[in-house]
Each structure stands twice: as structure tokens, then as C-alpha cells.
Amino acid sequence: MTALTITGLSLGYAITVLTRLPWWALFFFTLVWVGVGIKLRWGRPLNARYRKVWPWSLVPLSLWGVYVYLADSFGNVDLGAVFFHLQAGMADHGGAGKMITAVVYTLSMLGVLISVTWLSRNDQRWRLMERFLALGLLASNPMLYGLGQRSAAVVADDADWLDHRYVEPTASDQNDAPNLLILYLESIERTYSDEQFGNAYDDLHRLGERGVVFEGVRQMEDTGWTMAGMIASQCGVPLMPAGLLHDSQFEPLKSVVPGIDCLGDILAAQGYRLSYLGGASKEFAGKGLFYRGHQFQSVQGKDELTRQLDNPAYVNDWGLFDDSLYDMTVDEIRRLDEADDGPWGVVALSIAGHAPNGFPAQSCIERQGPFDGQDILYSVECSAWLARNLINRLDSQGLLDNTLVAIMSDHLTMRVSVWDELTRLDRQNTFMLLGDHLSPRRVQRDATMLDVFPTLLESLGFTLDDHRAGLGVSLLGDKETLVERHGLDTLNERLREETALQHRLWEGLAPQRRDTDSTTPQEQVIETPADRTDEVDIMR
Known about the structure:
This protein has 540 residues and is of the alpha/beta class.
């Protein structure tokens, strides 16, 4: 009875996680499972024959347990994120809460494995059935299917489709170079602007009235977590992990996408002084490696910033609350501005909207009232209000003169309290630009975060070849984005087959082309002739 109850509860929980059924439905599935088990006398057959065997399904069950944990924690299981975080580091990854959840899942899986072993040893019907169960579990695990897709890229015939479309970011010198402030709002996607979410997004709406708001910025694969979103928007490429083709795939990374030039490299070459501030640890997911490796002179995370707090105890599981982070952001911008030693660039990464519940700051609680610990819309409203308040403070102190401000989500949110509502909508990332030289307007384009990179460069006054950089196209021009030309599904499909771009990112070497004449220099291929279509102006 105990074995049936454990397996029934686990099966019911897995079903509710992987579907949109309410959590209490797990008890229905448990009762059905236990009822069938009692009816068929599972584990206690009339002709019971005990045999000490190890079930074939133990490993497949364990892999499914990993998948359910990832799906429950993040909503979508992204193998790219799994590979990258294993290599880049997971220290300081969310505090005791994450550890407790992992321990509970581990103990639950041990209970399932022990139960299945007991059933197989005491019931010959289970000994026969679980072999087929093992094969079914292996074949149906989406994580293993995704791994197979990535492995197939090694032998794909057309594994350089994206790399052929990569354009080296060659930017001209600027006149009267503006400063740059980038605010990444953790998980605050534009989808929250839908009326069913009330006033959660209102403060970002008000900020958008002062600048250029981009609608239609979608999420392609390998851009759906924080480090990937920052690299997509600053380098114009998806974050393909070092992965299966890398000789050191199971060793810690020493650099992050060293083979390409990103925003920091371009700005540093123009004399910009660059700073990064993030409330979470800079060691997590290679943030420190990325920013140091791409010419940021100051890189500060939880460890450095906590020492500057008046109250060191005012932190959350990930690090600093956003009101503290933004106070320090103001101080950093003032320091750079007063030095008057050329233009500056500051990148700040918030944390208030982090799934599953967010980390609203004390200043938000004083403004919004008590936080129930669950409602993500409370945290979204907090994040939006803090961002608007920061911009207003900087503006009132004259610290945004001749400054481009970019406000964007790092990626779409993962599983939160309004997950079902979000996933029924056309989901988009937040992206807006503010600056005295920009006329307020809305721009509707089918785009991805890859297109943010060239858009930022052109907004800063750089002139780009054909308005392109990386895999992105400036959303301020009339060139078609990759999504407009090919569609998001095609891009994701091509990404799963790609290896050449992966080599470029991690080895720093352009892959070998299939040149018919190796003595003739080959120009960068932007589109194949078959891909070309009449260009249309859809800016509005």
C-alpha cells in the first residue's frame, strides 16, 4: 500500500506539473492509481514469487524526475541553459529555498525508486511490465529528445546556416558620443501589459510615453535565461553553450563567448568607461566572466555591493533588493559623470521580478502594502515602479543629459502565479529606448532580442554596414529581421542544427567554408538568393 501511494502521488504530481491541471488534481490521479493497484493486487499477487532484481526503469525514472523538477521550477526545460549553467557555475544560485526544493525532490525520487524496486521484486507482472516501461520512459522524455536533436547537429549537412548570416559588428566613430544606461528588468516581459494583469505594468507604460517602445520582440531558443538574454541583446547571437563540440565541455569556463565582439568591446574601443551592477552574485552563470572579458572596467555583484549596504542583513536569497541596487546605480553614474573623462556606460540587472514569486523591496511594501509571498503581479508592479523612480531621480539630478536609456526584460518569465494566463497570450519581451534625440513613438516589428544589439548601436550614433550586427538588424531601419524573413520556428529549427556559429562563439575562429576557390576572399553571406524577397517598410 505504501509503494502504491508513493508512486501514485508522484505520478499525479508529475501530471499536474506537465499539464495545466490544478494542483489538487494529483489526489484524483493518486486515488485512481491506488484503486487499480489494489484491484490488481500489485505487489501482492496470489502466486507471488520474490526475486532480487534491479528494475531497468530506475535510470529512466530518475531522468524523468530531473525533467519534472526543471519543468516545475522554470516552466520550460531549456537544455542550453542546463549545459551552460553546469559549465559557467551555479554558486549562490538562490539561497536555502532552492536547496530545500532540490532536497525534497531528491527524497521523493528515492521513494519512487524504492517503491518500484519493491514492486518488481515482489510481483512478476511488474518484472515483465517495467522493461517496457523503461523503454517508454526513455522514448517519451522531452529532455532526451532535445539532447538527441543537439547531438544530431554534429552530423547535420547544413550546420552553418546561422553563421553565414552573422555580420561582424563594424561600427563607425561617433560624434558627441552619448552615455548609455541599460536596465535589465528580470523577467518583466511586455506580456504583463495585457489588461487582465491590471496596473502591474503601468509605470513602464508611463516611461514608454517618453521614448521609443518596441512591440513584437519575441524569444528564440538559447536566449531564454538571464545570461542568454544579456548576450543576445549585447552581442546579437543566441547563447549556444560550449556544449557537445567543445573539448573542455565538463570543465569550468574561463571566458564567455570570447570569439565575438559585443557591445562592451565596441564601446570600450570608443573610450567608454563601463560598469556592471547586479544584485545577484557575479559568479553565477558566468556574469563576471562575460563582462570582464568584454571590456567592462568595473563589475560588481552581490559580494561587492553587500559591503556597501547600511544594513548588511537587508538582502534576499539571491542578493540585494532593487531599491538598494538602484541607490548604488545612482552613485556609480554620478561618479562616472563627475569624472568627466569621456562617455560612460552602465548596465544594471534587477531582481524584483525573479520567478516564481519575486523579491519586492521594502520601499515597495511601504507603497503597495503587505506582500503575500506568492503574487508575481505584486513584484512586477514593484519592479516597474522602481525602474521609473530610478529614471526620474537620475533625470532630476541632470545625470541623464546626453544619455541613451535602454529598458528591457532579460527574458520571458519562467513559471509564476499567472503562468497559465501568460502562456495563453502572444508573449513578448519589454524593450524601450529613452533619450532627448529620440521622438516618442511605437515600433511594431517581428523581432528577437538579437535585434536589440544593432538597435542600441545605431541609437548611440554608430553607423552599421547594412544596419546589421551579429544576427540582428536595427529596428530603427527598414531592413527585414531574421524573424520577419524566415519566421521564429525556422530560426529555432536552424539553431538546433547549427555548429559553425557555436565554434565562432567559443573558439574565436571563423569555421571553414565550403569554398570552391580557396584563393578568392569570400564575402559574408547575408542571405542566399532563394531567401531574398522584396523589402517592405513596416515601421509604424
